[in-house]
């Protein structure tokens, strides 16, 4: 009986030894296929293309990355969300047209985004006068964006007149920040 038991033990030990040997051969094969980290690091210094480099982006991918995301922060980061007007005016300055051109570019890149153009005024003047002036400002922004290729169906306007100041206070530095047109992503 002991010889049978001994035979079984030898068979088990042999099987375990064979399995361990097979596993150790697989590890060597893996090691042979993957070069050591130092070889990969050295390959970049020698100028060989073996070292992974930063992926090259196409011009379209770069532009899409700059455009950001189709939300308020994407618009604000890419083009800004507001322009400013002179006192008692709805005329677009050269600086305002530059900002609006970038906003139009952003809107054309995201054709499913709709916006509301808000018209704002400073605190001087009557409520009725400022509501009308705010409407003229919002309409001027909307018309410029339409002229730059943004469909009118994506643009709504609203005037808040002097009811929603960005900055509270008196003086030109405060008033100039409140005379604005703001794009709000829907």
Q: Any overview of this molecule?
A:
The chain has 186 residues and is α+β, with helices and mostly antiparallel strands. The protein folds into 2 domains: 2-45; 59-185, 60s Ribosomal Protein L30, Chain: A, CATH 3.30.1330.60. The protein is built from 7 helices and 4 strands; from the N terminus they run H-H-H-H-E-H-E-H-E-H-E. The chain has helices spanning 2-33, 37-45, 59-67, 72-78, 94-109, 127-147, 172-178, and strands spanning 82-84, 115-120, 155-161, 180-185. A 4-stranded mixed beta sheet has the order 1-4-2-3. Helix 5 (94-109) packs across helix 6 (127-147). It is elongated. The termini are far apart. The relative contact order is 0.13. Mean pLDDT is 83; it is low at 27-32 and 37-46.
List keywords for this structure.
single chain; 186 residues; alpha+beta; 60s Ribosomal Protein L30, Chain: A; 2 domains; four-stranded mixed β-sheet; 7 helices; 12% strand
**Tell me about the biggest sheet?**
4 strands, mixed
> What is the CATH fold-level name of the largest domain?
60s Ribosomal Protein L30, Chain: A
- Rg measurement, Å: 34 Å
Number of strands: 4
The count of helical stretches stands at 7
What structural category characterises the helix and strand content? alpha+beta
Please specify the SSE layout and strand pairing:
Blueprint: H1 2-33, H2 37-45, H3 59-67, H4 72-78, E1 82-84, H5 94-109, E2 115-120, H6 127-147, E3 155-161, H7 172-178, E4 180-185
Parallel strand pairs: 2-3
Antiparallel strand pairs: 1-4, 2-4
């Amino acid at each position: 009986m002991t010889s049978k038991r001994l035979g079984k033990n030898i068979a088990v030990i042999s099987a375990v030894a064979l399995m361990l040997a097979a596993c150790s051969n697989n590890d060597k094969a893996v090691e042979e296929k993957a070069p050591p980290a130092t070889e990969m690091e050295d390959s970049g210094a020698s100028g060989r293309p073996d070292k992974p480099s930063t992926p090259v982006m196409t011009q379209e991918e770069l532009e899409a990355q700059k455009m950001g995301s189709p939300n308020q922060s994407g618009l604000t980061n890419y083009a800004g969300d507001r322009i400013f007007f002179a006192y008692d005016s709805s005329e677009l300055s050269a600086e305002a047209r530059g900002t609006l051109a970038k906003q139009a570019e952003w809107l054309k890149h995201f054709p499913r985004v709709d916006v509301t153009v808000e018209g704002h005024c400073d605190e001087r003047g009557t409520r009725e006068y400022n509501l009308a002036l705010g409407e003229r400002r919002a309409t001027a922004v909307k018309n410029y964006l339409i002229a730059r290729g943004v469909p009118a169906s994506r643009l709504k306007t609203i005037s808040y007149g002097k009811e929603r100041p960005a900055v509270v206070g008196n003086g030109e530095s405060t008033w100039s920040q409140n005379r604005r047109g703001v794009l709000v992503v829907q």
